[in-house]
Amino acid sequence: PESKLPALGTTIFTQMSALAQAHQAINLSQGFPDFDGPRFLQERLAYHVAQGANQYAPMTGVAPLREAIADKTAALYGYRPDADTEVTVTAGATEALYAAITALVRPGDEVVCFDPSYDSYAPAIQLAGGVLKRQALQPPHFRVDWAHFATLLSDKTRLVILNTPHNPSATVWQQADFAALWQAIAARNIFVLSDEVYEHICFAPEGHASVLSHPQLRERAIAVSSFGKTYHMTGWKVGYCIAPAALSAEVRKVHQYLTFSVNTPAQLALADMLREQPEHYRELPAFYRARRDRFVQALAASRFEILPCEGTYFLLADYSAISDLDDVSFCRWLTTEIGVAAIPLSVFFADPFPHKLIRLCFAKQEATLDAAAARLVSL
Ligand code: PMP
Ligand code: GLN
């Protein structure tokens, strides 16, 4: 059949993890921990399964989880979404992003995003018939040029997609960025999709700035998060989105026929976890900061230049001093010959990206990071 997405191949994450496995390389490519999530959470899952919570959950998510999410949001971002009408549990952040884009973007609508951008946005926009307008951010700070941003807006602009803390650049937005975004779109009829899956992995002194903390923006925003990152359980695939009731209603129309509902016992276990162990997400920045610092320190002896990392569990490394290869070839070589798998940065850009940057995931045990660093230092 004629493909609706002719240019689309297998994601770089699947490709690099497969290559890592084939060559028994240390896999710092696809973002997932090589350690397990909290035992309490696993026990609560087993408990709810044993209790017989094994049938369909309500379409919008189980009430205890939606309420726990509303409470957490109020505590962290100073705004309490209505658990019934404004919080929707989804099959990972991926589903929330897809449902939001599908619900909002009409054929011919323009969507603005910032490159490097996470790979699931563009295909969803394309399938909805939308047109992407991209601003390419530049290393090492990857800050938005707000004057340029204004030139990307038109009467056709329907949606802006942002991601903070940002995968793959490891930068974070500040309140000033949200203020600038509001100033640019206030007079226009534009919605905001804010991908905040790394909200609890933020090292900036002022903490994570959420779109939900901005009183005007949140009236137009869909904020997306994921428990996979927070609880070291990327395979559970439970996420959620928060949006005003009218917007949530539109997202739910898509969610209803995309998945209808999400794994029941996992939702109940996550509700218990949020309620009973809030210290877990509060301690997460320190947990990951220690890993980041250990890895950065070990790499100080290498010829890689390490870029600043303000959030996420990814680190960017410049290999200009080591090789002339393009980043895709370098990552393949690094995996097959040196035994460390990484992600090339150019795959997150629509236009050619001339820099020599790779992304390394440090959500790994100390022994894994030390072993990887030893190989990288040898270059
Ligand atoms: N957005 C970003 C920026 C991500 O890094 C990821 C996970 N890699 C997702 C969305 C998807 O999250 P989930 O696994 O919960 O679907
Ligand atoms: N978000 C993960 C990453 O950036 C990958 C998720 C996936 O494999 N689709 O590495």
TrEMBL record:
GO molecular function per UniProt: transaminase activity
Superkingdom assignment: Bacteria
Pfam families found in the cross-reference section: Aminotran_1_2
Known cofactor(s): pyridoxal 5'-phosphate
Signal peptide (from-to): none
Keywords from the named record: Aminotransferase, Pyridoxal phosphate, Transferase
Gene3D superfamilies linked to this entry: Aspartate Aminotransferase, domain 1, Type I PLP-dependent aspartate aminotransferase-like (Major domain)
Domain Aminotransferase class I/classII large: 25-376
Protein name: Pyridoxal phosphate-dependent aminotransferase
